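Recall the central idea of this unit: under ordinary conditions, the amino acid sequence of a chain determines the structure it adopts. In this exercise we apply that idea directly, starting from the sequence alone.
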Amino acid sequence: MAIDTSVWYKPLIGPRLKAPTRYVFEKWSGRDKAWPLGEYPCVGEWIFLLPSISAFKQFPEIVHRAKEGATILDVGCCFGQDLRRLAAYGAPTESMYALDINSSLWDLGYELFKDADRMKATFLEADFLQENSALSCLDGKTDIIIACQFLHLFGWEDQIKATKRVVTLSRPGTMLIGYQQARLMAREYIRPWGMMFYHNIETFREMWEIVQRETGTRWNVTANLVDLHEWGMEDEDVEWMPQDRMGINFIATREK
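Accordingly, the structure predicted from this sequence is:
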């Protein structure tokens, strides 16, 4: 998919940032180095600049828990921008973990943020769905799991498998926080990296019911549909999407 023809690639940031900051990110961020690594919309459309979890009302609670020593895992971490959001509010990076299928985007995160001397999070290179991987060191030990624009990368069956993987990583009190694209009419898509399933609220809840039943755990799951503009996306970011495009924001806390 060539840079100049992809609907997922926006050469300019547009109105997302004020002019001086916009210039820095467009000229200095290394975003164009990241695009060929996967050609993901979250990179091509500058989605990594969105407010993300900092816009959730639970964000102060997450910061507090992080300061108290919570173990935090960011799955599909991209540049590690969400971990750095927490770090900016005083969360210690030593108790943070970042996971991606390869280290390339994580390495570019150090270049983007210029913080190799301060960002002490542990990077884990692994396939999230693979058993007995580097991620296994966190089984039953993770307090906060960040999954932004991640679970929808899988098809229906693999999203169930991925959510069960979240359960394996968790313990009572663990919070999963994230957001992902959705549709009013749930359906699957083929993308260059594989099959994706876009939920609506009904299928998202159905998935969690299946996972809880089959894992014998109980979770308090809150999910709501939002217009993608509420995330900070621009008209040009969504013009290639179908009319029933939406987003899902979700919080799931393990009760037992």
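The mean pLDDT is 89.
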